[in-house]
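Notebook, bench 3.
Goal today: get a predicted structure for Uracil permease from Liquorilactobacillus satsumensis DSM 16230 = JCM 12392 so we can plan the truncation constructs. The sequence was checked against the plasmid map this morning, with no discrepancies at the termini. Length recorded as 428 residues. Pasting the sequence as submitted so the record is complete.
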Amino acid sequence: MNSGKKEKFRNDEAILDIGDRPQFGHWLVLSIQHLFTMFGATVLVPLLVGINPSIALFSSGVGTLVYILCTNAKIPAYLGSSFAFIVTMQALMKADGYPAVGQGAISAGLVYVIVSLLIGRFGSAWVDRILPPVVVGPIIIVIGLSLATTAANDAMLKNSNYDLKYFGVAIFTLLITIIFNMFLRGFSSMIPVLLGIICGYLMALATGIVNLQAVAAAKWFSLPAFNVMFINYHFKWYPAAIIGMAPIAFVTMTEHMGHIMVLNKLTKRNFFKDPGLHRTLFGDGLSSVIAGFVGGPPTTSYGENIGVLAMTKVHSVWVLGGAALFAILFSFVGKVSALIQSIPSPVIGGISFLLFGMIASNGLRILVDNHVNYELKRNLIITSVILVIGIGGTYLKLGSFQLTSIALATLFGIVLNLVLPVKASSEK
């Protein structure tokens, strides 16, 4: 491997650290692996809302590059379409069309930007106080396990009457990926997810669950139908969009910080301090603002890609940047975009069983590595509440504003950590 500029600190456990640049051929394959991993979720959101998937692919690639730039290329993360805004976006699309959704996406991004500026001015020392290991570990576990239902639905191809052949493809994909991850050596050991998806796709073809009609009908070059703010339509204020989507930004911020915690653990760094939480939030927010201007949904960091980082130990930001460039390129190549969209859900579900589990396992590692004492009642209480609220799917809905289970679990964990004494009266 050729390396880029070395950093003062390195994670010796990583095959490729954050600043390392792979050889060109390896770089392409590693980046495509991340592209395949995020593709399903990134295009699913616009399909559910009624937005052109190519625009979402384009905005996710541009947003990721902007994020890398804003964080001084110090954080290996990929930004894709956010699921947190789906319900509100669907309502806005029915009422006012995309102009309202775009304005809402911009307003949500601006909330991130404003918060980042405040943190940049007043500091982020509070993060260590409100998010100690006993809170962080369970939250990361929740982030991974809360996606378990999504993985299971994909594996069984929800609404298919749970045909065994779909589950068979998912399990085959899972097992072959585990085998690749455990026994391959050299460069091939860094792309078990990509190899697993390819083998799973071939199995899906053999079982007849792949629809290639869209691939055959797709054009080689297809310009995404951008909905550019101020150009494609006259500007108009949509207060309902701003009121409905801006507050959700505070919810996705908790998920954003959760992902940063996972990355801190994986890379053995503290991104809250360097490059700083203000930079990570600013990059995430600016990405959503750009997405809103070109016609895409708001973006957020992706747990799927973090799972790939955990599995492969390839943490190079060059690889994530390459994935972003491929996303932009493929948004203009109709055949390639259609081919990737043709990957059936059971293949993605089989991969997700492993990737989402990897995220949850890193939460367990935080608890173990920090020697969290569960003989203390406060630690048991905090962990128990976070896990049940988060994994149980509890949510709070007030009008068009919805507080997700992860956000609620985080909120309860933070409050309990701040108010509960170190020891209960019976432990003193």
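The chain has one domain: 24-366. The chain is about 65% helix and 5% strand.
Flagging this for group meeting.
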